[in-house]
Amino acid sequence: MAQHDDQLHFILFPFMAQGHMIPIIDIARLFAQRGMVVTIVTTHHNYLRFKTITDRATQSDHLPIRILQLYFPSVEVGLPGGCENVDTIPTRDMIMNFFKAISMLQQPLEQALGEMEPRPSCLISDNFLPWTSETARKFDIPRLIFHGTSCFYLLCSDNIFHYKAHESVTSESEPFIIPGLPDLIEISKSQLPDQFNRTSSETGDLHYQVREAELTAYGVVINSFFDLEPTYIKEYQKVKKDKAWCIGPVSLCNQEALEKFERGDKASIDQNHCVKWLDSRKPNSVIYVSLGSMCRLTPKQFMEIGLGLEASQQSFIWVVKGAGSNRYGELETWLTEVKFEERAKDRGLVIKGWAPQVLILSHPAIGGFLTHCGWNSTLEGVCAGVPMITWPMFAEQFLNEKLIVQILGIGVAVGALERVSWGDEDDVLVLITREEVEKAISRLMHEDDEGIERRKKARELGIMARKAMEKGGSSYLGTTLLIEDIKQQVNKKISNSNSRR
Fold it and tell me: Where is each Glycosyltransferase N-terminal domain found (predicted)?
């Protein structure tokens, strides 16, 4: 037993998409701060996105975080060279090529795991990596799934599958009630993630593999906290026989301004300029608008957002992903030559590309957040104690909207009615009009009784989120219980091995 069996070694393997990688990097730091050796499995181009953060964690903070870079066979499967992240896939038609390349990582991953010291204690992998269940079995270690969403969504999803509730309606737009929930939640098929709708045989096979792998997984790691969704956490833990651990909001491991600024990717704005601009604004006066790293709205839709912001007369920070690329030439012209930026310069700041979202949201000037309801963004808004305008688009985002608006009471819906699958955005020029954007901003920022109550609830949840991550908090305890559980599994394995001698 000269292989450091007493040292736990957690292997973390995120899916190659920005919203999936960011929380895994935070989780790596959380485990490393508790004394675990952590290895993050990734590829070269994805590693470059978070290298600055992990370098500082290992060099300045001396955390035991290691990086395993696997060669990503993009060219071999017909993808452009260097296409290693979902946000670099040229067309939707190539998504299955991307998954094919990911599946080809199994053999090199298993070879690397076999050579590691200390030996791996568990594998925490994204639910979109179902083949990692087989890898975990080969090494006789627990595989835990990281879903990257809430217990509310997971319970909704589980109940829809179990009761086949979505099959009871006759049209895509007809609402149905999700059975077996503590609250009355209505949704339509057109608002559900792709796995509930008819897809190609290839994507259908993938969703089936994901579902089957989940049934055999040892447990689930969840980026949430007890006070956010107590009833849903209790119910989901029953479903998972208590093998579901809430350890979030993991973004709160970023305490320093530099950590918040560098989180995720290289920002497209100077930190000092961003903070100085925010410092010049009154508290709770700025609306922050960001629709996620996967946002591919049409130029005309972006223009409608801009005109709605302009009409609202509210100070704003607006993140425009893709501006400057060929696809967004029309938008770039409108921003510069039609002088939107010039007209709005006294009230607005436009960030073209990646924005330091956690840094921005945590500033006292921010009074509202127009979000696509991705779970990372939702939690970051919650942590900042900021009320939200919800504009869901695809995946689990419409259910996240139900949580924000209906259950938590900290949001206003902009009026999105059905999903727009990734790659289909060009089929709909304008989803939400400038008038709808202006109306939602006015309602969110208005200090009437409803607005005051919404802001109060948001502020209270922000305080609860921070307490959850502190020593003695519910998520700190969740992390402790997860570590203890894995330690017991390792000790049981050692004991069984010794008894066979």
Answer: 8-250
